[in-house]
Specification:
The protein starts with a helix and ends with a strand. The longest helix is centred in the middle third of the chain and has 29 residues. The chain contains 14 helices and 30 strands. 24% of the residues lie in helices and 24% in strands.
């Protein structure tokens, strides 16, 4: 035991001085769900996090919540229009009530409209009975006292309401603030997010098991609460990101239909600041089989229905890839030319299972499943550490004897022994597909499961470990590992959350916790300060990018058409490869598209070559929603002259101008030598007709001034530059 403790303390000392990689990694934050019981105090109007309406027998008999929510007569924003009401399956008239937890004591100010009777009470105070019999906006002040846990509760019950002027628009303002819809967030909530680069709104959107299907299902800013099962309004996510000038990360609900996605994309395009990137991820952890992740079973059902795989599990993983591509295509249709500068297409995976990554990534190279050729920008994982430590302690019967230092030492072993291989495997896949490797979540994972969460002694030690200074040292080591392994972005999980048997996820336990009492927050901010992103350099003035460079090396390209290998292929370009015209004979030579001509003794003219279909052709097109500008674009074509009679000149035609004699866009010089030699032809495309190409374009190369039969030549290189928008 003494050796283990000494080893851990030494590691904590050394890790602060680990050499930093030159590779840059920025840090974002996952925001916790907005709920009546959460300790985040995100909104100054705390009624925005009120519990969805509960019901109760009007005579106070029966249970505290009779659960007749669906029977409440409500307006479009959820305000009850009739109270009491009688549900269809009960004879008892019902009232409606709600509550909200707060972490700030003092005098709260209630404003409301409408007529009726209701009660309101703050913890530690008296029950206030309000009889509202006048129209207009009314106010009422009441006190809330904090308990020993530094939390308080506000209860509100509507006893009756005037259906012609029903009680509505309740606002309960935090002490010291007035209502201002242009600035709805608590300033402390925003201030503590200042250093983080990206805000992930997965929990704000209640992504796990989301019931949202249509655009009309979503929560809107004017709804009576933002704490319902459909999550916080997208408009509030945008407002917070814009206020803080942070990139935002949204998760599309797993059941969302195409119209929802298009409307979501349009809202984001219209409202998100122009310098803010938008990360777009399909659902959340659609591989996770825990009961709260019903989206996993849903994607499996969809994958099986589409016949993606005979294995239900694999079918689900493949469907996650298919639906991701469909979502990004719909975003592409909205964002157009701004897609590649505004949107980060995130393909998430299970950190410990690179097989899931492979199944999902394979979708994007299958034209039947990904006909538009959409590609992700980043592979995202969640490399938590210490996830098995708590259950392992129980299995070893060490709950009573183990120390907090020992718990942290075992978590450190996970960082040193397990995570490196896990991250390396995912990084290799990301590099193979030209993707960034990022973390959608991550951090410590010290929590009991499968009943072990109910062990109070174990929970107490896990909470102490999370509050210890040593945990901060572990985070330093953890972040250093991620950076040195090539992770470019890390989203910590999470911002604010009470520590309990279900985990200690937050960097803060409540919004007003002193920052110097949170080792996690301190280390994350220290890391950010000591590892700033490299300064942005002005964009170099360069020519148009290369859209495609053909790879014509390989075994018998001419016998394996279309030959569609590339050395370079620009994102969102669909390349169809090389084929041959009916007037030439494909040959089995390697490392070039080799064919032979059969002509008379007299040198052929270009018109004869066109008439006899003596050509090699290459074609490509932009993905759906993209347009190519090839006006004046540079073309490099390499001809392998293998026989002097196989053509002394070469003409290039395109489908834009046509394939009739006289439509040629380039004619080469006259070549006359007998040695086998590559001739590089360089030219620029015309401008007229080439600046807005949104479908396939074909180029044909016709050799002419040729004679005799069996004379060989080949295409050994092709590069096309251009702009995609």
């Amino acid at each position: 035991m003494i050796k283990k403790i000494q080893r851990f303390v030494l590691a904590m000392t050394l890790v602060l001085f680990l050499p930093l990689s030159a590779f840059s990694m920025d840090i974002g934050m996952n925001l916790n769900s907005v709920s009546d019981w959460s300790f985040d105090h995100v909104f100054l109007d705390v009624f925005k996090k009120a519990r969805p309406w509960c019901t109760q027998n009007a005579d106070d008999s029966g249970s505290w919540n009779t659960k007749f929510y669906d029977d409440i007569p409500r307006d479009a924003n959820g305000w009850p229009t009739q109270v009491p009401f009688v549900p269809a399956t009960s004879d008892f008239p019902q009232t409606v009530h709600t509550l909200v937890t707060v972490v700030k004591g003092g005098t709260y100010t209630l404003t409301y409209e409408g007529m009726g009777n209701f009660t309101i009470k703050g913890s530690g105070g008296a029950l206030n009975i309000i009889e509202s019999d006048t129209q207009g906006i009314k106010t009422f002040s009441f006190d809330v006292t904090m308990d020993e846990e530094q939390t308080g509760t506000i209860w509100l019950e509507i006893l009756s309401t005037d259906s012609s002027d029903y009680l509505r628009n309740f606002k309960i303002m935090t002490p010291g603030y007035i209502s201002d819809e242009s600035n709805p967030f608590h300033p402390e909530y925003k201030t503590r997010l200042t250093n983080f680069s990206v805000l992930r709104f997965m929990d704000w959107g209640r992504t796990n098991a989301s019931p949202v299907v249509t655009w009309n299902d979503r929560t809107q800013p004017g709804d009576y609460t933002q704490a319902g099962n459909n999550g916080v309004a997208l408009e509030y996510m945008v407002m917070l990101a814009n206020d803080l000038e942070k990139d935002l990360w949204i998760c599309i609900p797993h059941q969302a239909d195409d119209n929802y996605i298009s409307q979501c994309a349009q809202l984001l395009k219209n409202t998100v600041g122009p310098d803010i990137k938008i990360y777009v991820e399909y659902s959340n952890e659609t591989w996770n089989c825990s009961s709260s992740f019903s989206q996993t079973l849903w994607v499996q059902d969809k994958g099986v229905a589409l016949g993606l795989d005979g294995d239900r599990w694999k079918a689900g993983q493949k469907y996650a890839g298919v639906r991701s591509a469909e979502i990004w295509r719909l975003f592409q249709e909205v964002f157009g030319a701004d897609m590649h500068t505004r949107i980060v297409k995130v393909l998430a995976t299970q950190s410990a299972n690179s097989g899931i990554s492979e199944m999902r990534l394979d979708i994007f190279s299958d034209p039947q499943l990904n006909p538009d050729g959409i590609q992700p920008d980043a592979l995202a994982m969640a490399p938590y550490f210490g996830g098995d430590v708590a259950d392992d302690i129980v299995d070893r019967q060490e709950v009573d004897s183990i120390s907090v230092t020992d718990i942290l030492s075992r978590a450190q072993e996970d960082i040193e022994l397990t995570l490196p291989d896990e991250i390396t495997a995912q990084k290799a896949l990301a590099m193979a597909h030209n993707l960034e490797l990022i973390c959608y979540e991550g951090g410590q994972h010290l929590v009991g499961t499968l009943g072990n969460e109910n062990n109070d002694i174990l929970t107490g030690k896990l909470l102490a470990a999370n509050r210890s200074l040593e945990m901060g040292a572990l985070y330093t080591q953890y972040l250093t590992l991620l950076q040195t392994k090539g992770v470019s972005h890390f989203n910590n999980f999470s911002y604010i959350g009470a520590y309990n048997k279900w985990g200690s996820w937050g960097v803060f336990e409540h919004l007003f916790q002193a920052s110097d009492t949170s080792p996690k927050f301190q280390i994350l901010n220290t890391w950010i300060d000591e590892n700033p992103p490299p300064p942005e350099e002005p964009e170099p003035v360069v020519g148009p990018p290369t859209l495609v460079t053909s790879r014509l090396t390989g075994v018998s390209p001419a016998l394996n058409t279309p030959w569609d290998l590339t050395d370079e292929l620009y994102p969102n370009i669909i390349y169809h490869g090389w084929t041959l015209g009916s007037g030439v004979t494909p040959l089995g030579d390697d490392d070039a598209m080799v064919f032979s001509l059969c002509n008379k003794k007299k040198l052929t003219s270009l018109s004869t070559a066109v008439k006899e279909n003596q050509y090699a052709a290459v074609s490509l097109e932009p993905a759906v929603g993209w347009t190519m500008d090839l006006g004046g674009a540079a073309v490099t074509l390499t001809i392998r002259r293998m026989d002097n009679h196989g053509g002394h000149q070469y003409a290039v035609f395109s489908s834009v101008d046509g394939f009739k004699n006289g439509d040629e866009i380039f004619v080469s010089d006259y070549y006359d030598f007998w040695s086998v030699k590559d001739v590089v032809l360089s030219f620029n495309l015309p401008r007229e007709g080439y600046t807005a190409i949104d479908n396939a374009i074909e180029f044909r190369v016709y050799p002419f001034d040729a004679q005799y039969c069996g004379k060989k030549l080949g295409i050994s290189g092709f590069t096309l530059e251009g702009t995609l928008y």
